[in-house]
Amino acid sequence: MTTLTSPPNASTRTRPVSTSSNYEASASKPSAPVDWHAPVPRPGLAGGWDRFIGPGATPAEQALAVVPALIAAIVLPVYAAAQGLDWTTAQAVVAGLLAFDIVGGVVTNATSSAKRWYHRAGQGARQHLSFVALHVAQIGLVGWLFRDLDFAYIGVVYGALLAAAVLVLRVPRRLQRSVALLLTVAALPFGLYALAPTPGLEWFVPALFLKLLVSHLTAEEPYA
Q1: Model confidence pLDDT, tens digit, residues 9-34
Q2: 46: helix, coil or strand?
C-alpha cells in the first residue's frame, strides 16, 4: 500500500486521517497494466497498415484513427467554400489531405498501440527526429499553395518545429509531456500572430505541433 505522508508545514495537532478515507482508498488502488510489447506486423499490405498505426491496434483505435480524419478532410473544403476562400480544386484536395493527415496523426500517435510501436527498442532520438523532419512536406505545401510560395514561412515554421522537437527529446522523460504541451500552447500565438495567418488553415501550425510533439514524441505508457 502506498504510504501517505503529511504535507509540508502540516500541524502536528491535526487529527489522524482515517484509514478508511476515500483518499487513501483511491491511492491504494493498483495501477492500470502497462504493456510495452509490440506484436510483429502482419505480412503484406496489412503489415503496412500495422507499421503506420501500430501492430495490434484494436478496432476502437483504428476507428479513432480513421473516422475523425475523414470528417476533417470533408469538412475543411466545405468550410472554405462557405467562407468564400475561392480555393482551386488542387488547393481543396491538398487541404483535405492535410486535415486527414494531421487530425488522424494527432489521434493515431497517441494510442497505446502506436506508443508501443514508435517507442519500441531501437527507436531513439534519431528515429523520432527523422519522423518529425519528414513533415517539411506538409509545411512546404502550405507555404507553396496557400501562401504564394512563402519561403520565409516554410523556413521559420520548420525551424521552430525542429527546435521544439529537439528540446522535447532532450528533457527527462518525466518532463516530456509538460514541455511538449507548453511548446504546443506557444505554437498558438506563434501561428496566429507572429506569422500572418493562412486563411482556412489557421489551425495548421498548432495542430502540427500537437501531432508531433505531444502525440508522437512523448513516451507515455501504453496501457493494455
Answers
A1: 433 344 444 444 444 444 455 577 88
A2: helix
Of 3, 50, 11, the closest CA to residue 28 belongs to 3
From CA 118, how far away is CA 111, in angstroms rounded?
11
Measure CA of the first residue to CA of the last residue in the chain; give whole Å: 23
Q: Which three cell numbers stand for residue 77?
A: 473544403
Closest C-alpha to 87, from 76, 102, 72 = 76
Residue type, 108: T
Q: Which three cell numbers stand for residue 135?
A: 513533415
- Give the integer Cα–Cα distance in Å for 107 and 215: 7
What distance in Å separates the CA atoms of residue 176 and residue 111, rounded to the nearest whole number? 17
- 183 and 213 Cβ atoms separated by less than 8 Å: yes
Q: Could you tell me what percentage of the chain is helix, strand and coil, using 3-state DSSP and rounding each to the nearest 5?
A: 65, 0, 35
Residues, the chain, total? Answer: 224
What are the residues whose beta carbons fall under 8 Å from the beta carbon of 62, sequence distance 6 or more?
Answer: 53
